[in-house]
Amino acid sequence: MTNRDGTPIWYELMTDAPDVAQDFYGKVMGWHFQAPAGGLEREYRTFATDKGEGVGGMMRTPDHATGRPATWDVYFGVADVDAAAAKVKELGGSIQMEPQDIPGVGRFAFVSDPQGAVFYLMRGNSDDQSTAFAPMKVGHCSWNELVTSDQTAALEFYGKLFGWKKTGAMPMGPNGDYTFVGQTDTDMIGAMMDAQKEGEAPFWNFAFTVLDVDVAKAEVERNGGTVTTGPIELPGDEGDWMIQANDPQGAKAMFVGKRKQGAA
Fold this sequence. Notes:
Elements lengths: L7 E8 L2 H12 L2 E3 L9 E5 L5 E7 L10 E7 L3 H10 L3 E9 L3 E7 L5 E7 L16 E8 L2 H12 L2 E7 L5 E8 L2 E8 L8 E10 H10 L3 E8 L7 E6 L5 E7 L6
Parallel strand pairs: 1-4, 5-8, 9-12, 13-16
Antiparallel strand pairs: 1-5, 2-3, 3-4, 6-7, 7-8, 9-13, 10-11, 11-12, 14-15, 15-16
Helix pairs in contact: 1-4
């Protein structure tokens, strides 16, 4: 991929029930799933929007990770995976999986920031731009939210690793600031927020855009998921609403969209 370093280029769900997850997200998001040509050593399915634009993949929890909760992860694009992984370690993060190749796909590493939130580094073989992160585009990820134990340290880490900077903040009272981050003031990646539960491990949380948030809410509940928050209206003049949900296996995800059927 030729995206700028630090751009989200792929999203991946690890789950022990891929058939159930495929059915769930197919109905909530309208994604179309398929197994990649050539196959991988693990069960893997890619998914795309109804226009055929790639967003991410889904893999069955491997044996060595048995017991890990169903989780969404993000791949951040970098020009040099080995150099970026070394930088992660230099900045106080950890290497969970050393840089390695996926034949025909690219090179990646699985790492964590100093507070423990995990993510991937990736350099794809293709020079095409990723379509996974496309704010306001239905079927794509529109927001990347880091829930962390130390926003100041996290901002310093990602700033030195990817060049991100603070682009603004929204006070949330006793819950601390909701800090917006991005490459520039007009090119936001997402935000950082303080963990709201005592002892909660830092993690990345993602919002996927839907056409109608009330329809998405109904599909989540109809297909074995649980809505934990919302719908709540998001700040700004776009008229967007958000729900936070758990899929049938417990993976957290946000769904964002207009309210066409429901009432405010």
